[in-house]
TrEMBL record:
PROSITE patterns: RADICAL_SAM (PS51918). Its cofactor is [4Fe-4S] cluster. GO terms for molecular function: catalytic activity; iron-sulfur cluster binding; metal ion binding. The lineage of its organism: Bacteria, Pseudomonadati, Chlorobiota, Chlorobiia, Chlorobiales. The keyword Protease does not apply. This is B12-binding domain-containing radical SAM protein. It holds the Pfam family Radical_SAM.
């Protein structure tokens, strides 16, 4: 399938891509999306478009020449960084080791190294050891000072904004920066878009509150709609699929409902992460369906009320779970449900309750993960004495980090493997997906069926 990102390339004279020389008088950036050293999820042969780095490239491209490399696609990191003035990398915890290795190599060659992303923000002191400068939080809010310092050759160790910039100041992302790769067809056909930033819910295992605090910002609705229409014009068709990358797009229901009421006229399809506590409202489900939503990603997390309370997941009310599911399914919206295991309150019964809930409510695409205390979060500090290791490669939510109090490691992992295999057996898929239209969600289930057959407890260690 041709990726909808494929478009006319930026002219060679504009200097995009490693094969082009720098413009005269402009410093040259290499922007890198590192791969992770391990990956436990099923390989769909597609990777998501890195909207965060598209936004960085768009911002930096106003002042510098920018090349982009996405290692996840199979792009190759150069051995020699001498042609670049700045090597900039983003990092999550699961690819921090790889990002640091590249950063150390570039730094050893005398390049200015800029590190940003979730992990450098949450592990600032560690990241500073591998970089010339670390961006704490979002780069947009420190960009005027950072860009001036780069041009003057006096980069500071840390850039941290006193205040976050309004989202209306965000430039429309220029996707041509990341489409120069010969492997760009490996990108997902879902175009990422951003309407809001932040999530004030404050779950203690989540990194978002540290990065954004209790701030919740949003773009003017017309700006979001303009960006959608831009992609429709760019690709010459209206029936595109968009993924909202927001942490919690529905936090302000009035804004969300107004956005949906306009999106319904654009004839698009879309999906998003959404907070549980707004979905018991049938009006939201109706508007979402009318506006083209085909899947909502929901963090159910646990069927245990004590667990939800312990991680400050106050937005989840067990009594609303079935009503939320019914509201979405009644309007033809599929559900990607996230379920976490490994909390101290978990027991053998927890796995059975989760299996029963998924099957009885026909959850379209269940996703299972292991509780992972990420550095910098309150949960990490609480669990630090019990962590088995700090091998960042395994901080991907699919490796066993600590032993829950209710179950020994062997019994726990046996149950974790079993619930996945049972949910993705052929007959279980047929039961959950009965009567639902054939689409990519069906394909994802079939891929998971093949993937889960080979699961063993040992692979999670």
């Amino acid at each position: 399938m041709t990726s909808p990102f494929t478009a006319a390339s930026r002219p060679a004279s504009e200097g995009v891509g490693p094969e082009h020389p720098s413009r005269s008088g402009r410093k040259k950036w290499l922007l890198i999306q590192p791969r992770s050293n391990t990956c436990m999820m099923v390989d769909s042969r597609r990777v998501s478009m890195p909207l965060n780095l598209v936004m960085v490239a768009t911002l930096a491209g106003e002042v510098f020449d920018v090349d982009f490399i996405d290692e996840r696609l199979g792009d190759t990191i150069p051995e020699d960084f001498s042609r670049y003035d700045v090597v900039a990398l983003t990092s999550r915890t699961l690819n921090a080791t790889r990002a640091y290795a590249i950063a150390d190599k570039a730094k050893a060659q005398g390049r200015a190294v800029l590190l940003g992303g979730v992990h450098p923000t949450m592990s600032l002191d560690e990241a500073c050891r591998h970089a010339t400068s670390v961006v704490y939080g979002e780069i947009e809010s420190v960009w005027p000072e950072l860009s001036r310092d780069i041009l003057a050759g006096r980069m500071q160790p840390v850039y941290r904004a006193d205040a976050l910039r309004p989202m209306n100041a965000m430039a429309r992302p220029d996707f041509t920066y990341v489409l120069q790769s010969r492997n760009s067809r490996r990108y997902s056909n879902r175009i990422p878009v951003l309407a809001t930033k932040g999530c004030p819910v404050g779950c203690n295992f989540c990194t978002t509150p540290t990065i954004y605090g209790k701030n919740y910002r949003y773009r003017d609705i017309e700006l979001v709609l303009d960006e959608i229409r831009y992609h429709q014009d760019r690709l010459g068709r209206g029936s595109l699929h968009f993924s909202f990358m927001d942490d919690n797009i529905s936090f302000r229901p009035v804004y969300f409902k107004e956005l949906l009421s306009h999106m319904g006229r654009l004839a698009i399809r879309w999906n998003a992460n959404i907070s549980m506590n707004f979905l018991h409202d049938p009006e939201i489900a109706e508007l979402a369906a009318w506006s083209g939503c085909d899947l909502m990603s929901i963090g159910f997390e646990s069927l245990n009320p004590e667990t939800l309370k312990s991680v400050h997941k106050g937005s989840n009310r067990l009594e609303d779970y079935s009503a939320v599911v019914d509201n979405l399914h009644a309007r033809g919206i599929a559900i990607q449900g996230y379920f976490m295991f490994g909390f101290d309150n978990d027991s053998a019964e927890s796995f059975q309750l989760t299996y029963d809930f998924i099957m009885e409510n026909w959850i379209d695409f269940p996703v299972f993960s292991l509780v992972t205390p990420f550095p910098g979060t309150p949960y990490f500090e609480e669990m630090k004495p019990r962590l088995r290791h700090m091998d960042w490669d395994k901080y991907d939510t699919y490796h066993y980090m600590f032993e829950p109090k209710g179950l020994g490691s062997r019994q726990f992992l046996d149950h974790f493997v079993k619930v996945q295999k049972e949910v993705y057996k052929g007959r279980a898929i047929a039961r959950r997906m009965k009567g639902k239209r054939l689409n990519w969600v069906w394909l994802a289930n079939l891929q998971m069926n093949r993937f889960t057959r080979s699961l063993k407890p040992s692979i999670y260690l």
